[in-house]
Specification:
This protein is of the alpha+beta class. It has 3 domains: 15-58, no CATH class; 59-165, Uridine Diphospho-n-acetylenolpyruvylglucosamine Reductase, domain 3 (2-Layer Sandwich), CATH 3.30.465.10; 176-257, UDP-N-acetylenolpyruvoylglucosamine reductase, C-terminal domain (Uridine Diphospho-n-acetylenolpyruvylglucosamine Reductase, domain 1, Alpha-Beta Complex), CATH 3.90.78. It has helices at 7-10, 77-86, 102-108, 162-173, 193-199, 228-246, and strands at 2-6, 18-24, 35-37, 43-45, 52-55, 62-65, 68-72, 111-112, 115-116, 121-126, 129-132, 138-139, 142-143, 151-155, 180-183, 206-207, 210-212, 219-222, 255-257. The strands form 6 sheets. It has a 5-stranded antiparallel sheet with strand order 6-7-14-10-11, with helices on one face. A hairpin with a 2-residue loop joins strand 10 (121-126) and strand 11. The protein is globular. The two termini are 23 Å apart. Flavin-adenine dinucleotide binds at residues 12, 36-43, 55, 73, 98-101, 103-105, 107-108, 110-112, 141, 145, 148-149, 180-182, 255.
Length: 258
């Protein structure tokens, strides 16, 4: 079964074509040459992408067993957050401000500051069985997962922390409200991608309807009707200028799907 997805509406940056996406309804390997999408909050999809797949609603669930939380790969961060709040679970507060599905969160090791999705993780469920956290290479906004995450199992502790909500809300205040795919680049060791982009004169710089945000330079925003080419042009420009001036090779956080 397929589902028609308009990436100019579905993706957080509101760029991309209308594509029939294959719906994965039972555990299986990713079809050959397919790219797997989650909520498309970290993607820049080209006008001519490879075949795409996504998990069906069947993988949108949460349940608790003793001190273990089981979450399906298609479950949205907002739903995980609300569940944790309701059940007085701590460690997932940042999900109030971080868009994504469980699979995308795990693959990217998404998080805010020191709170990241791997912190409470025990194991992930894949077509080849469970894989323990200890057996997955992971770090800052990185994992080497090359398979579909169908489910994740977390160890939970009680004590939902309301104070953290205020901290995360404050962090979001200096981020743009225009559509984006989150941070374009990872922060290089000991520095900030936003500072570097600003230092090479690209804060607020526009190409067509895409620009590096005036609010925070590491956010590439869509001012309405931006094209894939414009967004890609800006990403390459920032990489080039930062390398020329500082010999720092910025690494993309956003994933370009071509
Ligand atoms: C406004 C905004 C703010 C953001 N702030 C942050 C932030 O503070 N911190 C942060 O870490 N991120 C942030 N992001 C980025 C984004 O929220 C995360 O990367 C999130 O994890 C993406 O999840 P997704 O489901 O949308 O994945 P997608 O963007 O659809 O995909 C991302 C990657 O995950 C893979 N993937 C998706 N589903 C699965 C699955 N089931 N199994 C295996 N791989 C899968 C995809 O193949 C792709 O490689 C922000 C994004 C936006 C738009």
């Amino acid at each position: 079964m397929t589902k028609s997805i308009d990436f100019s509406k579905y993706s957080s940056i509101k760029i991309g074509p209308v594509v029939d996406v294959f719906l994965i309804d039972e555990m299986q390997p990713l079809p050959k040459n397919h790219f797997l999408i989650g909520g498309a909050n970290n993607l820049l999809v080209s006008d001519n992408p490879p075949p795409l797949s996504m998990l069906s609603k069947k993988f949108d669930y949460l349940h608790l067993e003793d001190d273990r939380l089981f979450v399906g790969g298609a479950t949205k961060s907002g739903r995980i957050f609300s569940y944790c709040k309701k059940h007085n679970i701590k460690g997932f507060e940042y999900l109030s401000k971080l868009p994504g599905t469980l699979g995308g969160l795990i693959k990217m090791n998404a998080g805010m500051k020191d709170d990241e999705i791997f912190n409470n993780l025990i194991k992930i469920k894949t077509v080849d069985g469970y894989i323990l956290k200890e057996d997955i290479n992971h770090g800052y906004r990185f994992t080497d997962i090359e398979t579909i995450v169908y489910e994740a199992v977390f160890k939970i502790e009680r004590g939902f922390d309301k104070e953290k909500l205020a901290i995360f809300a404050k962090m979001r205040k200096n981020q743009p409200s225009l559509p984006s795919a989150g941070s374009v680049f990872k922060n290089p060791d000991g520095d900030y991608a936003g500072r570097l982009i600003e230092a090479v004169g690209l804060k607020g710089y526009k190409k067509g309807r895409a620009s590096f945000s005036e609010v925070h330079a590491n956010f590439l925003v869509n001012e309405g009707g931006a094209s894939f080419e414009d967004a890609l042009f800006l990403i390459e420009l920032a990489k080039k200028r930062v390398f020329e001036k500082y010999s720092i090779l910025l690494e993309k956080e956003v994933i370009i799907v071509t």
